[in-house]
Amino acid sequence: MDTKPVEPKDEAGVDQTTCPICRQPNQCAYAAKLPDANECWCMRESFPDRVLNSVPAEYTGRTCICKSCLQAIKAETSPQLPGSTPCCP
Fold this sequence. Notes:
Elements: E1 47-48, H1 49-52, H2 67-75, E2 84-85
Antiparallel strand pairs: 1-2
């Protein structure tokens, strides 16, 4: 089975394997289009609105943030924040 990712950039040239906040690899199997994408860490996480609002507009719905940024932003929020959305487009 080939696990090499296919072209990670979308039609606008956004690298979907890079976190739009810190510009480091986001480690998202879904973004890298790997065969085991449904097992990606991001599919098991919740993304409160505050996290999603931290993503620059040009990257919204195009790329995942990394786990480090997710944890850092979540740490600044109340654990009972309403509204969470799955991460990947």
